[in-house]
Every structure is written in structure tokens, then in C-alpha cells.
Design goal:
The protein is 47% helix and 0% strand. It is mostly helical. The protein has a domain at 10-63. The longest helix has 33 residues, at 31-63.
């Protein structure tokens, strides 16, 4: 005769496992209660590890671009109406003049100095 597996959330399982560990560390439990808590704690640990292993597998699939939903990017209304080469909305700053003989602001004339 098999019994149905008990179900819990990951968060609730962690909380319960922490409570079991705390009770065992505090001490004062009888032998039977200690064994019962150890059995329950070990079962929770096993279930939690299996869940984490499953999540890790899913994350590896994601990193390898496997089983991802297909997403298409479309241009919005504003993007479709505007000309990407039109720069009339931008102010143009005057171009800086460059002279190879000009001294930098610090006064150094090293070949390593970059004039901008």
C-alpha cells in the first residue's frame, strides 16, 4: 500500500526545516521526537534539493537558449512614422578645431596627450 506524497511549497519547506534544525540544536527532545524530527528534516532536505536541481536544470536550459518563448519585436507607431536619418530635431554643436601643434590645457606636449 503506497501513500500519496505530501505537498508543500519551497518556502514553507525551508521554514519548516529551519524550525526542525532549531529544535534539534536547542536540545531537550526525547529520543523518539528527535528521530521523528530527523526523519522529517531529511525528507524535507531531499525534496528541497530535488526542487533546486530541477530549477537549476531549467536555468541551464535558459542560458543555452533552449525552450524559450518566441518573441518578435515590432516597430511602434512613432517609429514607423519617423525617418531614422532625419536629424533636424538635433542641434549641432560647432566642431572643435584640431591642430597637431596646439598645446593641451595642462601645458604638456607629450606624444601621449590626446587633444580631446
Amino acid at each position: 500500500m503506497s501513500t500519496a506524497a505530501e505537498q508543500t511549497t519551497y518556502e514553507d519547506g525551508i521554514k519548516e526545516l529551519e524550525e526542525i534544525i532549531s529544535a534539534l540544536e536547542t536540545g531537550g527532545l526525547g529520543v523518539t521526537e528527535t528521530v521523528t524530527k530527523c526523519r522529517r528534516g531529511k525528507a524535507l532536505e531531499k525534496a528541497l534539493r530535488e526542487h533546486l536541481d530541477s530549477c537549476e536544470g531549467q536555468l541551464k536550459e535558459i542560458e543555452q537558449n533552449e525552450n524559450l518563448p518566441e518573441i518578435k519585436i515590432i516597430a511602434g507607431d512613432e517609429a514607423a512614422e519617423s525617418d531614422p536619418t532625419d536629424t533636424s530635431d538635433f542641434e549641432q554643436a560647432p566642431a572643435a578645431e584640431f591642430s597637431p601643434s596646439a598645446k593641451p590645457a595642462g601645458g604638456s606636449t607629450s606624444e601621449d596627450d590626446i587633444p580631446f
